[in-house]
From TrEMBL, chains A, B, C, D:
InterPro entries: ACT-like_dom_sf, ACT_dom, Formyl-FH4-Hydrolase_C, Formyl_transf_N, Formyl_transf_N_sf, PurU, PurU_ACT. This is Formyltetrahydrofolate deformylase. Its EC number is 3.5.1.10. Residues 5-78 form the ACT domain. The gene is purU. GO terms for molecular function: formyltetrahydrofolate deformylase activity. The active site is at D228. Belongs to the PurU family. The keyword Hydrolase applies. Keywords: Hydrolase, One-carbon metabolism, Purine biosynthesis. It comes from Aquimarina hainanensis. It catalyses: (6R)-10-formyltetrahydrofolate + H2O = (6S)-5,6,7,8-tetrahydrofolate + formate + H(+). It comes from the Bacteria. Transmembrane segments: none annotated.
Amino acid sequence: MKKATLLINCPDKKGIIATVTNFILEKKGNTTYIEQHVDHEVGEFFMRLACEFDHDEEKFALFKKAFNEQIAIPYAMNWEMYNPKKAAKMAIFVSKYDHCLYDILSRHASGELHVKIPLIISNHPDLEAVAKRFNIPFKHIPVTKETKAASEATQLKLLEEYKIDFIVLARYMQIISPGFVDKYRNKIINIHHSFLPAFPGAKPYHSAYKRGVKIIGATSHYVTSDLDEGPIIEQEIVRVSHIHNVQDFILKGRDLEKIVLSKAIQYHLQRKVWVYNNKTVIFS
Amino acid sequence: MKKATLLINCPDKKGIIATVTNFILEKKGNTTYIEQHVDHEVGEFFMRLACEFDHDEEKFALFKKAFNEQIAIPYAMNWEMYNPKKAAKMAIFVSKYDHCLYDILSRHASGELHVKIPLIISNHPDLEAVAKRFNIPFKHIPVTKETKAASEATQLKLLEEYKIDFIVLARYMQIISPGFVDKYRNKIINIHHSFLPAFPGAKPYHSAYKRGVKIIGATSHYVTSDLDEGPIIEQEIVRVSHIHNVQDFILKGRDLEKIVLSKAIQYHLQRKVWVYNNKTVIFS
Amino acid sequence: MKKATLLINCPDKKGIIATVTNFILEKKGNTTYIEQHVDHEVGEFFMRLACEFDHDEEKFALFKKAFNEQIAIPYAMNWEMYNPKKAAKMAIFVSKYDHCLYDILSRHASGELHVKIPLIISNHPDLEAVAKRFNIPFKHIPVTKETKAASEATQLKLLEEYKIDFIVLARYMQIISPGFVDKYRNKIINIHHSFLPAFPGAKPYHSAYKRGVKIIGATSHYVTSDLDEGPIIEQEIVRVSHIHNVQDFILKGRDLEKIVLSKAIQYHLQRKVWVYNNKTVIFS
Amino acid sequence: MKKATLLINCPDKKGIIATVTNFILEKKGNTTYIEQHVDHEVGEFFMRLACEFDHDEEKFALFKKAFNEQIAIPYAMNWEMYNPKKAAKMAIFVSKYDHCLYDILSRHASGELHVKIPLIISNHPDLEAVAKRFNIPFKHIPVTKETKAASEATQLKLLEEYKIDFIVLARYMQIISPGFVDKYRNKIINIHHSFLPAFPGAKPYHSAYKRGVKIIGATSHYVTSDLDEGPIIEQEIVRVSHIHNVQDFILKGRDLEKIVLSKAIQYHLQRKVWVYNNKTVIFS
């Protein structure tokens, strides 16, 4: 049996579920799981459907062609048939903080993440030792105001060369330029060390301390050209009190950042995220 | 448009979703939402499907008859078509603690709970004043070892008389006898003041304090004839530390109990709970 | 034995703890509990000290006089000796939402809050029925742009008449004018239905929904003349997802608001809150 | 200035705090922080006191001698003066699961843990590669029923040789014998993958799944000769639902285990844990 996951997004319309599941049944497939969501406010339909077929590759290609013509086009679907066995290729961008990098590489080494990591890129040389521990190629590409355009060109060339599917900014302390972001739309995951939209920008733990909040957070989101305003994938929080100073916030935040970023990577890898209206639908 | 919610549980089989959604489409209905679960270990299928029809009551009855004959019987379905507008009738059993009772009656008065509360039953007279504040009939039925059977008979008669659909034990400090439980299978919701299966039985906060746990909890579950071992509907926890004594545990636990019990009531009212193998499937 | 709680705030200095505890020992008192905090960044010292004495009222007054002259003045202390047995007087301000009011009055009726509630004030008549259920005097004082000054004057007169110690805004939908706030500095507790500083001002649940956050929150704080920027007392959060619409946010938020506001009231009542630099120290 | 942390546990008695802080003041020391707890039920007093002195090593030794004679002996104190700058020596015991080991070694490499790790011991050879990545000596000591006594003797010899202060069982799947436990009383930290006292012993995730709980947890505790019944240091939980199978529980549990174990190690390292009556006092 060949397993496939069908991802569908289209304007909401009567009969979509019946039409799709019936089509699969007719083609001798079996729908094993449906998760579905309708945003009634904007009339948008989302579905993640797991199915299995016993036919061969050729017939499978025919199925996709027929699905496109008979279902996807009439319903104006944004769709994809995704093979859950294939591992995507992820690049990690870092600067000097090592905790998120250690976390991702440890999870990868433990077999938690079904992904290939062909490349780590950094604007500083500091974390090369960490990359070496896990035998991942490390490219040091310094970034200054003057060299930014050239550096990004070098980065983009590497990403192409290594056939990178998506990028994780694991506390990468540089702003990605809009042109770069456009090339990897909804494919750059950032971790911001605050409970967005509170405390965007630099030094959020310092701002949180100054404001006297009782809870701090971390947020993973897709990068857009508006700083820290991209679609939120995951958030988590931890309690603080007057006994904690900024250093304590930073230390507590490290665990938050690791957990939140790794969850976002996992959701992305498992193709459970839909982006629309600068928000996300995350299937479970 | 008439809205209906279809609840289905049956052995897992190829094509169920397509068959059901297609049947609804053929009968001029529209499936607006599906939530579905398969327990692959035991091969059990669950579905909660919201749909709407524009036809009249008579045609609707015909639809149900046809669904039963053509779909439900062949698939060996345990099924129900449920009208989300109809309010169920709930009886509350209490003893002396008033916090859960206040919470339920306040939510009801605020319009949070789509339910009728025709009856409060207690083995003590203490909470009659609370019932009066909210204008709910209060029946004092004392229970002693000797009178237990007679008292339960009186309770059951009242429940029948008031056409009660389900019962909430809001810190009711009596064990319900198996005969009573059988009559309201999966229809008696209890709140236990521990994180089950830890600390079943009497005085769980005292036991938790003695054991030195760092987190305490509360659990709502359907009552079965095995004390505190029924299917769990909801659980919640709160952190404690060495500075808290048993009284603090009890006080902190009050909020937990209220939240957990009211969530369980809400899930039950909205028909989001399936029970099987002494566990629950809770649709969202 | 007479129990007393000593609250001290002063510039941090060598030997404060020893000096204070020694003074109490010399006066035949016993220090039973100390909670202490130093904000090293600003050099501020805070202490909450529970002690007991076996002497009479007259000696106790002498003790306070001696403490003031020999300890408090030399150390430039902001201090108070507080009798934990005395119940403070709290006024509740409401508008139309009833859930926080029900919660506070239920807790009061259950004996959870060691406080007197002589007065509920509202700019709408709607919640008089709730006040009546709990036998609390309810004053309807309408507020319009034109009558605002006069209405606040009426409110202030009532607060004085009833000897109110502090005010709880239990979803009171009016902005308190700076003159009013000045009279009850750090004595007006508000509940804001967002995770401040995110989403200050009106309709925070709508803004949170629009931003696509994965967690919503509620914040209790002392009211200052800057809207939603006063010192935070307590915050709590709950997870949301794409399946929840604004109405779901509002419903989930109700429980948050109740819990967070009641905790803030409890901390305030138990004199566990120190305010400085627009932040709070909350002793446990 | 020399900083020191004074740890005191003794029967509760009038005047302890004043006596201790006054003694420090007399000896030209400054008490900078006190955290204190009294368990009134059993009459036990606990204090963690940070102080600083400007005198030299010799005078410091005299201070300790004087403190012991004049304060500690009269009050029957169990006490210690601890130098927060000195790093303890920790051995890690593992079997085959690598996630906790990666987590501890990554934190250590990041500088989060103020500790030396001279030694990893395992009953399996599998994790040697992980140890090598972080350049920590790894000793493979197989354990079978027959060799258990000899293996433990070898382990104990190594622990002595490396002057190990305390041991962390990072998912070590062997029961430590009572004789071994006695030698490292309150010095062996275990991570158990359930919310104790629920689901002690083997395969707790499987038991939790079978019971249908809505929340799973992890617990770190000191090892005693009663399996999974030692004093609890830290616990944490995560929500689960019917959509999660045992494998999901195990995967979610990994993050819990890492967080809970690392917190317990941190508390232990910072000397914030007191053990009594099979419970812990954890200062903040």
